[in-house]
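Note on ligand handling. Small-molecule inputs were canonicalized before submission; formal charges were left as drawn, and no protonation-state enumeration was performed. Where a ligand contained multiple stereocentres, the stereochemistry in the source SMILES was retained. For coenzyme A, this procedure yielded the string shown in the input block below.
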Amino acid sequence: MLTLDRLADLTDADRAAAAALGAIVYPPADHAHWPGRHLEWDTPEWCVRVHDGGAIVSFAGVYLRDATLDGTSVLVGGVGKVKTHPAARGRGFAAAAVRRAGEFFEAHGAAFGLLVCRAELVAYYERLGWREFAGRLIVRQRGEATDFTLNGAMALAVRADAPAAGTIDLCGPPW
Ligand SMILES: CC(C)(COP(=O)(O)OP(=O)(O)OC[C@H]1O[C@@H](n2cnc3c(N)ncnc32)[C@H](O)[C@@H]1OP(=O)(O)O)[C@@H](O)C(=O)NCCC(=O)NCCS
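Structure output:
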């Protein structure tokens, strides 16, 4: 079962289950070495959750952000914190969650979607229709504009084409 909800509407038990999935996928000991741990990240306003046999097996954070592309205002959809329980991988759960996020972007009038990911996952997201964004990605860290260089970025065509170059300013923290 796949659902998209506002994070604030989840019950405490649902929130705890999502956090428990996060701790399984990203054990705290590993997190201590993650190069992005010092960055300020946004909290998703919505999330897609996939349940199998009553248990949450996959999660994707969903964002909408008033941003700019080459100085022009643009509504950008975001996907982040994508994770699937190790025992439930390879069954298309994350793909379904990311596709659902794309439908949400379309329904809300986003121009394009944006995500950041490790290089090893670029081919995976390409299979889901995302394209590498080779331009400059500006984010805010504690209010200060700064280039995002931790990972590469990928964009998804929604109401407009997916930008491959240029400057995107997320006007806020990354996701
Ligand atoms: C990446 C992840 C979310 C995929 O979840 P999933 O539900 O198994 O995804 P799908 O079933 O839709 O697709 C599986 C495909 O993802 C790709 N994939 C997953 N992890 C990968 C990795 N580390 N490197 C390269 N490709 C990978 C593979 O193509 C895989 O196909 P395969 O099972 O035939 O090998 C899951 O592996 C995960 O939680 N990983 C750890 C957290 C993470 O890296 N999240 C992504 C942040 S952008």
